[in-house]
Amino acid sequence: MSDLLVKLYELPDPRETLEKLRAAGIEIKRGIAPEKHHVVKWVGEKFSKGWASECDAAFAQLPCSCFVAVKNTKIAGFACYDATAKGFFGPIGVDEALKQPGLGKGLLIRTLEAMREAGYGYAVIGWAGPIDFFKKTVGATVIEGSEPGVYKNMLKG
Asked: What is the set of domains in the chain, with CATH numbers?
């Protein structure tokens, strides 16, 4: 999978998406330390141990670089940045059982906004899966020759 590049100075306005999510009872917030064990465990169970490790690394940042979507005190999704490498967005995941229209979009844009607020001009979406989603939502472009990129010598097994 290739990496993607996003111009953080051209992000879409997230207000309408976030308002719709709030109306559906979903709040997207920056994680805090007492929640770390819940979020990391949830990510490991729903997605993978590798993503749980990246989420753990995001919680080690100050401020925390993991955003969590919450519905009725349950985790509905998450998104991280600066977990694998500085300037990298991801991973991102949504619980299929609690999925709402706009949830992935809201997590993506809110997390990318945080990157812009931290001083980044661009974000790399590492090893992007749903390329069309990222292209459509935030105008991401493929970084040619980026596969496998920083993941080249990753341990497996």
From this structure: 4-151 (3.40.630.30)
